[in-house]
Amino acid sequence: MELKKTPPAPPAVLHQGEFWFTELHAPGTGITFRVKQVLYFARTPFQEIALVETSDMGRALFLDGTVQLTERDEFIYHEMMVHVPLCIHPRPRRVLIVGGGDGGCVREALRHPEVEEVTLVEIDGEVVDCCRKHLPLTASRLDDPRVRVLIEDGVKFMKRSRGAFDVIIVDSTDPVGMAGPLTREGFFRAARRALTPQGLYAAQSQGPIFDGKEIGRIARTARKAFRHVSHFLAPAPTYPGGLWSFILAARGARNPAALRPRPLPRGEKTRYYSAGVHRAAFVLPPFVRDFIQ
Amino acid sequence: MELKKTPPAPPAVLHQGEFWFTELHAPGTGITFRVKQVLYFARTPFQEIALVETSDMGRALFLDGTVQLTERDEFIYHEMMVHVPLCIHPRPRRVLIVGGGDGGCVREALRHPEVEEVTLVEIDGEVVDCCRKHLPLTASRLDDPRVRVLIEDGVKFMKRSRGAFDVIIVDSTDPVGMAGPLTREGFFRAARRALTPQGLYAAQSQGPIFDGKEIGRIARTARKAFRHVSHFLAPAPTYPGGLWSFILAARGARNPAALRPRPLPRGEKTRYYSAGVHRAAFVLPPFVRDFIQ
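The joint structure predicted for all components is written out below.
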């Protein structure tokens, strides 16, 4: 096999003076980035954090070797994760974000003038510190007076919260290891109790190309706690399979997927989200519907 | 930087007894596959063809080192490319496919009982031969009596066709080199002339994550030949950026994006396409709209 147009790209090794990092999405399939500079690297009690400057994607945050975001494409994930629930909640005053220490969800939530307080509960303080220092694109709004940053276990925080939040957003790592409890029935029940009566719950729920079964498991588990659990999709260029799913659930009796989104205030320009995109995102292709039945 | 969960993945080299192949989507960003077996490799007068068995994605066809399809995700691309135009054409009897030597578009077109003849015009006969032999998932319907396979230059074929096709689908490689002429004004004008009065034209038009400017160029060029040029999107897990765009144009005065899709016949199950997905695919996020203005 002749080799063309393909400079060397080994995973996290130096090759001909270049440093390439590969994340595997399946045993023999992955995404690879040339890293220009490692800005931060630490092993915390929770995970391994790496914040790097890539060749093409801007800065990128890896946790345990898994891409969490790149500056180039994070707008899609963060806009959808936040504006889908916030644009259909009648009055989203108090917002809780679990995980999301990079600040991307906080930044988007603050674009809604109805929001009076955003509580960020991140288990690993070093993620927040590192992003404040090296990822201003997402973290710059963490110092807004409306934001409260708590470094603690989101599961414990949720269990002691009652009727406190209009919108809860769970922006977690993959549901294995530390983040495993965030997709268990007990957590969903605690989240439901932590919502106000009209409250909405949104969370990332993995991608259908490589993790369809996991989407199904999360859906079935969430349905044990919430009356209505809907699913929406968005592209995720640097996540496995390039397509990502999210769940949207309501404490109350109304199906949140049927609610009409309110427009964002004038002047708040989004790059991926729009009212039309909101509605289209809930149209699931048959192969995704099959997973969640 | 400590290395975890990341076995070696150099591009098209043997490493610890494993053969990995990387396609770069930008100078320092790419997708990497472990190749279990090279089933076919040839350098033809037109390109380098490699058909390989991958670790996770089934068989994969590479042309000049660029992924054309994998068995695992080709259903999305082929269903959208074909069913979007065919489900809105009132009576798609004669279908022309330019490129697409793997047979995936032919397979989908034959699922429409209205289709009487599918003409496949592929410039490189070795692609067709190799896919007939090694890619039955897409190529198995090339021997259907309704199919006519012509090995010739699609540009020349188009220039001598007049009012002959109800639907034209251009399933080409990236618009550089050999495929460059397929996105030039002269080709679009020839395609318009090759359509019947109610005829529709669909073509892949690159991805907005890495090639937004190219989407814009293709859109502006197509609008010189067609009155209505619409755009739709679909996930493309193994294409650059994981999100792909397509153009849909009409010879006539009606805007094809506004037409209601007809359902596929009962029993014809699709995995990605549905009438709802069809409509949702035309909702473009603001950052894509910006490219095509």
